[in-house]
Write a structure and sequence with these properties.
The protein contains eleven helices and 15 strands. α3 packs across α4 and α3 crosses α9. The protein has 317 residues and is an alpha/beta fold. Strands 3, 4, 5, 6, 7, 14 and 15 form a seven-stranded mixed sheet that branches. The protein has a six-stranded parallel sheet with strand order 10-9-8-11-12-13. 30% of the residues lie in helices and 27% in strands. A hairpin with a 5-residue loop joins β1 and β2.
Amino acid sequence: MKAILIDDAHQLYLSDVPDPQLKPGYVVIDVYAAGLNRADLLQAAGKYPPPPGWPTWPGLECSGVISQVNPGSKWQVGDKVCALLGGGGYAEKVLVPEGMVMPVPDGVSMLEAAAVPEVYTTAFLNLVRLGNLRAGETLFVQAGASGLGIAAIQLGKLLGAKVVTTVGSPEKAEAARKIGADVIIERKRENVVEVLKQHSVDVALDCAGGALLGQCLDAMNPGGRWILVATLGGESTEVPLRVLLKKHIRLMGSTLRSRSDEEKSDILKHLGELVMPKIADGTIRPVIDRTFPFVEAAAAHAVLAAQSNIGKVMLTF
């Protein structure tokens, strides 16, 4: 089969690789589409290797049709599915644990389905499981026009929260407004800290980190939960420890990829119960910025690296 590999110069290239071999507890999926994520850029740069047991090529989510199953599997050959992956989505076929596979609901396209597993699972894990976000609370989402930002805004509104988000342009502000954000901060022309002081935060989903993280903590309500999922704005910050003490703030780091397949399967089970029905009935819809043939993966990566996208960038096979 064909796959997109990474060479020693951190460039993507098309290559032949062996087909995956079915093993107990797994299914093989013929890939229709794969979603891009910033973890893929980090992996291409040599900074984020896949977990043990997963392919060395990138790709954390896909949709496709099951082509191989084991006897007694709950899945059948021909089922249309989407899947969360530890890696390997940039290929024509992928081997996936059965629990990390979800059916594609009626009325949802295969392209949309491929945009679901990584960002909606990340949003669910951090807002529901770690953040314990409740109706009436205020959620702060960094980068609200990104794939994860959009999923977090949608899930926050579904849970009954007020959502404050940052964006990098007026066009992205309009996109965030359309999907339900209540307060939108254009970070290039507004002071994020000053705006947050007017909308005290209960839960923050932060993909930026950097100096801004420490500066914003005083804008949190007592008992606030700040969850850091990436460090796009820098790896260092100055934390006002007295604020953490006085307000009982919890500062948490969280990644999805490093969690076990069993934990991911459990998260997906609950995601399927809460979120997938809302995707099926159109209450929530993935936002797709643009789509590339998988042989143009390098061009797709360039769009993500430039942060010019609103929503997900996708590959099709």
